[in-house]
What we know:
The protein is mainly α and 344 residues long. The longest helix is centred in the first third of the chain and has 16 residues. The protein starts with 16 loop residues before the first helix and ends with a helix. The chain has a domain of 117 residues: Tetratricopeptide repeat domain (Serine Threonine Protein Phosphatase 5, Tetratricopeptide repeat). The protein is built from 20 helices and no strands.
Amino acid sequence: MKIKLSFYYLFPILLSINILFSCGRDNTIVENNKKDTTNTKASDEFKLLNSQLISDPNNAELYYSRAKLYFKKKYYDESLADMKQVLKIDSSKASYYLTLSDLYFITNKTGNAKIALEKCILLDDKNTDAMLKLAELFLYVRKHEQSMKYINMALKVNQYNAKAYFMKGMNYKELKDTAKAISSMQTAVEQDQQYYNAYIQLGLLCANKRNPLAIQYYKNAIRIQANSIEAWYNLGIYYQDILDWDNAIKTYTSLLHIDAHNKNANYNMGVINLLNLKKYDIAINHFSNAIKMEPNYVQAYYGRGICLQSKGNIKAAAVDFQKCLEINPKFENAEIALKAINNK
């Protein structure tokens, strides 16, 4: 269960900062005042910053504070407008460009993000945050050599940087070098024993090799984030893959206590109870729960149909197989099962 931002790499011509931030600021205070907020605390913060800016319109830090507040509230256009004002007033602080890069990243302006990060490093050649953000950007676009370059720059500044080893591991993972990926992730958790994402990746890497260390890595992730659906689900899948039905059921049950409506955990519980334990009523219940969450869950209809057929409820089974074909007319197994029923 991985979530990634999707970026394209633009390789833009490096523009001068004056060109990048050439728009005027005459109306910035007035225009940004128009943004309404429903959160009382945030609204009070905006009001205070707006009043301070009216009194001190050339204060870069005030614009910067408001830009970060807009960013936090997901008002990205307003945040960008304020960051342009910040850099018109003061373009000498690396932290400003780091924040600007985050804003460009989240709005998929990756070329501009790259420029901002490069400027950040020019102003502060020890800024490992900027180096690793650039490494991440190059990783997303599969420019592994460039990604590794910035990772190694960060490690020269701080050889104990856990995120740098994590990023190195992600590069090796994409390059299909599992041994080096595991080694790098292990180094990451040696530097930071609370590194949840590194434990998840170690679990995935070991699970792919059917290495039982995957269990402990997933459990470490759960130790850090007890309600992590991702960690519980991955652990359940591992037990299921190694045919450890008892532990798979216990794990999925724990997940369903956290998220009772998890369609995939319900479906997998249905599969185990149908195919391996022959507990058809329990399987039907889980398949039905999955269907409630996803009305077009074709595999769940098919699984429930097989359960009903196994119990002798042929008419209800036929309804589920027919539903499979309504959702996916090319679902061959459902077609075969329905024809077998109709030919009796």
